[in-house]
């Protein structure tokens, strides 16, 4: 069977009339009739009941119509995606990202893509590392920008940048850059942190704090960065985040850059290894644009 046969079959299903279907397909009515007969012989089932004045779909024909409609739609999507992959500068990609990426590289990247690759449409999904990896795993997202990620073995990852952590305090907190020595000074503080999810971001922060000989007293958790910062601003506790996370917030906060920490926050670009051929051109476009913006890609 051919796609032409299948498309003509669907047109006949719409018209339920061989003459009208022949006019729509621009072929002679006897030729269309032979096409449908050949299709039925190949399948081994009658698709139409021709015993009445007007043809009607049989039960098997109705099933075949529903399934073939899906198949032809998939073929159309596959052909379109193949064309987009070949060009690399057109089509649609979905990028998952942590909130810190939105405060660092995402806006500039999108602006540059809009200028240099205007036919490439980008959709965004914001969430935690776990949220992003889940969307990548289900192919709801194509790429992800994730901080401090423990990358599963079925993903490829490229480090995009590294930055210092900041200790973030309410404005009226007694600690400041002059009195602060190290995170050991925060042993008796209440902490507001993101949830642990098993993908590295919060696990790394807890590892750093534990290195100063104590477990933080976590009084509140929120997956939302804005919520964490607003709770800190309200005097409910302190927190620790990457430097870029603070961009765009005008809150009642005090910050201390943790320059002496050996640990840094690293932002990675990740995607599924199984989609390497499909996404390679898009990956190259993203990396080229990041390098143009001055991001040092290892």
TrEMBL record:
Keywords: DNA-binding, Transcription, Transcription regulation. SUPFAM superfamilies: Periplasmic binding protein-like II, Winged helix' DNA-binding domain. PROSITE patterns: HTH_LYSR. Gene3D superfamilies: 3.40.190.290, Winged helix-like DNA-binding domain superfamily/Winged helix DNA-binding domain. GO terms for molecular function: DNA binding; DNA-binding transcription factor activity. InterPro entries: LysR_HTH_N, LysR_subst-bd, WH-like_DNA-bd_sf, WH_DNA-bd_sf. Pfam families: HTH_1, LysR_substrate. GO terms for cellular component: protein-DNA complex. The keyword Transcription regulation applies. Residues 1-58 form the HTH lysR-type domain. Belongs to the LysR transcriptional regulatory family. This is DNA-binding transcriptional LysR family regulator. It comes from Flagellimonas meridianipacifica.
């Amino acid at each position: 069977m051919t796609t032409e046969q299948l498309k003509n079959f669907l047109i006949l299903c719409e018209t339920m009339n061989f003459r009208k279907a022949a006019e729509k397909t621009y072929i002679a009515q006897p030729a269309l009739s032979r096409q449908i007969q050949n299709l039925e012989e190949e399948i081994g089932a009658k698709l139409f009941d021709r015993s009445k004045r007007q043809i009607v779909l049989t039960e098997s024909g109705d099933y075949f119509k529903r399934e073939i409609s899906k198949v032809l739609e998939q073929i159309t999507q596959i052909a379109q995606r193949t064309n987009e992959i070949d060009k690399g500068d057109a089509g649609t990609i979905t990028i998952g990202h942590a909130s810190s990426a939105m405060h660092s590289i995402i806006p500039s990247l999108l602006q540059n893509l809009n200028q240099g690759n205007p036919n490439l449409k980008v959709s965004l999904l914001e969430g935690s590392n776990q949220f992003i990896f889940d969307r990548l795993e289900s192919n709801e997202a194509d790429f992800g920008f994730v901080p401090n990620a423990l990358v599963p073995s079925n993903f490829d990852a490229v480090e995009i940048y590294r930055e210092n952590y900041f200790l973030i305090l309410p404005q009226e907190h007694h600690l400041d850059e002059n009195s602060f020595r190290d995170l050991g000074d925060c042993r008796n503080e209440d902490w507001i942190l993101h949830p642990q999810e098993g993908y590295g971001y919060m696990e790394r922060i807890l590892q750093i704090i534990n290195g100063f000989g104590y477990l933080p007293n976590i009084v509140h958790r929120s997956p939302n960065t804005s919520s964490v910062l607003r709770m800190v601003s309200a005097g409910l506790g302190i927190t620790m985040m990457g430097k870029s996370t603070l961009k765009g917030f005008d809150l009642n906060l005090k910050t201390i850059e943790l320059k002496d920490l050996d640990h840094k926050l690293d932002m990675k670009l990740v995607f599924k290894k199984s989609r390497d051929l499909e996404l390679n051109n898009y990956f190259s476009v993203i990396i080229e644009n990041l390098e143009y913006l001055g991001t040092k890609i290892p």
